[in-house]
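User: Design a sequence. Structure:
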């Protein structure tokens, strides 16, 4: 892109300040900046005019029944058999969403490299691989394991896996791909600069995983391997079951296009998105969108009607993902701490939020698909997210949960 074209593009989006240091840059830096301006989608910035964190108006919300523990127990053998058949046939892949910045944990390294061990090293990535190995051993088949990184943590993540010899996983079955980036801005929608010749960007949210997977070429590999189902999960839940045969079997048997592992809410106002129907389609409503009326609504059995929180462990049928590939997911505007240049051109790392990031979320994919099976799991056995260092959803709480489940740390 020429300087003139870049100028015109920035002018259109009110972002001319991006060129303020242009004259101080080397030729290489100039070319890099022009190319970044060319590839950056500045249209996302207009979403901040909507209230931060809120998405567009919701449709009509009604309860969505889940497959509950008692039914799963009754049908466990049959469901497990169905799931294992699919896994053995190579039809199930795993997608680890590890492109996030993990800012709440406060480590500069990728979150999966965090050591949660007590008497010996135990990395988050190591736990996730160990959990997957259990199913590999049970089924006798390697599960293609796709890892989404971002520009911010790709090299470190790949190097870590190499150094650790993939924690014993067959490396032919591990595939890395990068997610795309989005510009980060101040509260007025002016993009921040992280260097004089570089716009500040951050990963575009975990909702971009499928598009990024396809664009990176890893999608082709997945198809060659014969994958038909993808188990998509977050990096930070160290207790989760990956490619859980019973879950896979339950979703296949249900005929649904997707499945979502859910836990019964611990409190009416627990900060977890809950499964519901929105205008008759499956959906996940965020905790801050749940009105008192919805929180207190009861079903026919007198139980809370919106009681199943999604734990970010989904199963998607590949052929259905193909049909929604081009659908635009809503953009979430999230307040975050964004490292940026100050007025003097020096880099600062803010202590408190100073602007917005723009993200698409995987949970919104559920609403794009025609059907979803909410599948209940036992919280104490499958849900130990690590978001913070201490307190709720922390390294501390996850350690206790792991030990309660017999994991030696
Ligand atoms: P979180 O919402 O916890 O975000 O991500 P985060 O970036 O990891 O952490 P904070 O909010 O900065 O503390 C949930 C899951 O989605 C992945 C994360 O890696 C995690 O597995 N994720 C998030 C991505 O893969 N890409 C993103 O752009 C954002």
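Assistant: Done.
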């Amino acid at each position: 892109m020429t300087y003139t074209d870049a100028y015109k593009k920035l002018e259109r989006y009110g972002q001319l300040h991006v060129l303020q240091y242009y004259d101080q840059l080397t030729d290489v830096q100039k070319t890099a900046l022009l190319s970044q301006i060319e590839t950056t989608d500045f249209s996302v910035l207009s979403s901040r005019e909507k209230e931060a964190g809120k998405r567009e108006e919701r449709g009509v919300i009604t309860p969505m029944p889940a497959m509950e523990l008692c039914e799963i127990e009754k049908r466990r053998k049959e469901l497990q058999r169905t799931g294992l058949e699919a896994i053995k046939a190579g039809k199930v892949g795993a997608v680890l969403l590890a492109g996030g910045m993990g800012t709440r944990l406060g480590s500069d390294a990728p979150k999966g490299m965090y050591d949660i061990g007590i008497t010996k090293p135990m990395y988050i990535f190591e736990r996730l691989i160990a959990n997957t190995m259990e199913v590999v051993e049970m089924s006798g088949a390697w599960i293609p394991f796709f890892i989404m990184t971002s520009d911010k943590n790709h090299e470190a993540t790949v190097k870590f896996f190499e150094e650790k010899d993939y924690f014993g996983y067959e490396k032919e079955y591990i595939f890395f791909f990068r997610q795309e980036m989005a510009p980060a801005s101040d509260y007025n929608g002016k993009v921040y600069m992280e260097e004089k010749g570089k716009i500040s960007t951050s990963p575009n949210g975990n909702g971009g995983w499928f598009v990024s997977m396809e664009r990176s070429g890893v999608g082709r590999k997945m198809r060659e391997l014969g994958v038909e189902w993808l188990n998509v999960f977050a990096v930070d839940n160290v207790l989760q079951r990956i490619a859980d045969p019973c879950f896979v079997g339950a979703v296949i048997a249900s005929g649904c296009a997707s499945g979502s592992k859910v836990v019964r809410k611990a409190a009416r106002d627990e900060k977890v998105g809950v499964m519901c129907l929105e205008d008759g389609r499956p959906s996940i409503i965020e905790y801050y969108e749940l009105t008192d009326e919805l929180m207190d609504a009861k079903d026919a059995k007198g139980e809370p009607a919106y009681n199943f929180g999604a734990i970010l462990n989904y199963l998607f049928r590949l052929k259905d993902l193909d049909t929604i590939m081009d659908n635009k997911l809503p953009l979430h505007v999230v307040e975050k701490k964004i490292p940026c240049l100050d007025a003097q051109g020096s880099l600062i790392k803010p202590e408190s939020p100073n602007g917005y990031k723009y993200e698409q979320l995987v949970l919104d994919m559920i609403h794009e698909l025609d059907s979803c099976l909410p599948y209940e799991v036992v919280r104490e056995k499958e849900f130990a997210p690590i978001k913070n260092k201490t307190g709720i959803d922390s390294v501390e709480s996850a350690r206790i949960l792991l030990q309660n489940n017999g994991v030696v740390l």
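The pocket of uridine 5'-triphosphate is lined by residues 97-104, 111, 148, 179, 203-206, 234-236, 359, 387 (CB under 6 Å). Residues 69-88 form the longest helix (20 residues).
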